[in-house]
Design brief:
This protein is α+β, with helices and mostly antiparallel strands. Helix content is 29%, strand content 26%. The protein is built from twelve helices and 18 strands. The strands form four sheets. An eight-stranded mixed sheet has the order 6-10-11-18-17-16-13-12. Strand 4 and strand 5 form a beta hairpin. Helix 4 packs across helix 6. The longest helix has 22 residues. The protein is elongated. The structure holds aspartyl-adenosine-5'-monophosphate (AMO). Aspartyl-adenosine-5'-monophosphate (AMO) binds next to strand 11, strand 17, strand 18 and helix 12. This is Aspartate--tRNA(Asp/Asn) ligase.
Amino acid sequence: PVPGRVLAADLSRHAGHDVVLEGWLHRKRALKSVVFLVLRDRSGLSQVVLTDPSAMAGADGLTEETVLRVRGTVTENPQAPGGCEVTSPEVTALSGPAAAPPFDLYRPAVPATLPTVLDHAPVALRHPRLRAPHAIAAASVAGFRSALDTRGFTEIHTPKVVASATESGANVFAIDWFGSDAYLAQSPQFFKQAMVGVFERVYETGPVFRAEPHDTARHLAQYTSLDVELGFVSDHREVMAVLRDVLAAMADSVTRRAAEECALLDVDVPRVPERIPEIHFADAQELIARHTDKDPRGEPDLAPAHERFLSAWALREHGSEFLFVTGYPMAKRPFYTHPEPGREEYSNSFDLLFRGLELVTGGQRLHRYEDYLDALQRRGESPEPYAGYLAAFRHGMPPHGGFALGLERWTARLTGADNIRRTTLFPRDLHRLTP
Ligand code: AMO
């Protein structure tokens, strides 16, 4: 009896037997008296040998990327990949002849520019180097989840269509929702906070939307936000400690689960220090003023060049590829941010810089209802649109905090990608809505 589908990687276990292989025609080599078909499946490559003249003629019309089912005998051959090949095959095409790919999918270096890759993403992503970042992203998310699952967090899934913006400063997409005004969620911020009141500790991985009006190598209009929120923290430092452990688990998971992809892309998986160094925003500005030709003091935020400067400083002074910048000015943080006790113009919040780029934002939040009303009033905002959000705070919320990590930025920094679009499946931005 012929077993069900066998994967290329398992072929040698079936030596001497008949098997069924299914996959894509990866390469075809037609010689005078033999045709070699290299078949690709998710586990690797296998070699199929045709010597019968009519079978060889039947292979004439087969183009690379056509999906095939092959039934034949597994025969040992030390010259074949994996030491085995399939002989006396019966070959069936499961789809019509495949159209030629936009570029050679299996040349070691990608012979195409980023726009070509993105235009042809459904097939271009089959290239091992273009696929690898997404396998690394998957391994990262697996590490994120397992770190939080073992720490008593519950995974949640919250709406992506919302009635009010949460991230002041970030741009929001307005949509028509059955005749009412609605927005695409910029963050699960409100919901993850509310869910602290239910589960104490929650996390979410999901899409968020930012109407980014400019085209940069680090901004997308839709990205994947890895969100965490936890109750009963005394300040932002406890949140930073959780983030540190989560990053270590992500790095570890990448090393273990995506070893092949890391080797292919020459990924340098970072060592996450036991204690990630930190610098207060005010001290960071002093440092920049002292060591660069710009004096940023008085500015409410860090410029990208200053983030790169601080990252380089952390690597030099502390041997760390990660740096926490804490205490960002309240003026630049959203209304839910908790101020720094004793220095109310600063906040109990942080950014985490990784290899020169902001990777994470987080902090402690306000947790008392009256504090929210005050904060909104100080910003000249009505509490009305936030009524649903604020409801949680009228029913007892613990001191809490959390963070959000941009998955595509993490993968881009890991893989050394020059553009975040290289680590995004089907990116959405100012100029791109397809494929
Ligand atoms: P923030 O707006 O800083 O914080 O976003 C958190 C992280 O998301 C990533 N990021 C982006 N990635 C790609 N394209 C974009 N346009 C983009 N914008 C942001 C960055 C950033 O550090 N609610 C807060 C988080 C919190 O406090 O829990 C928030 O969304 O890696």
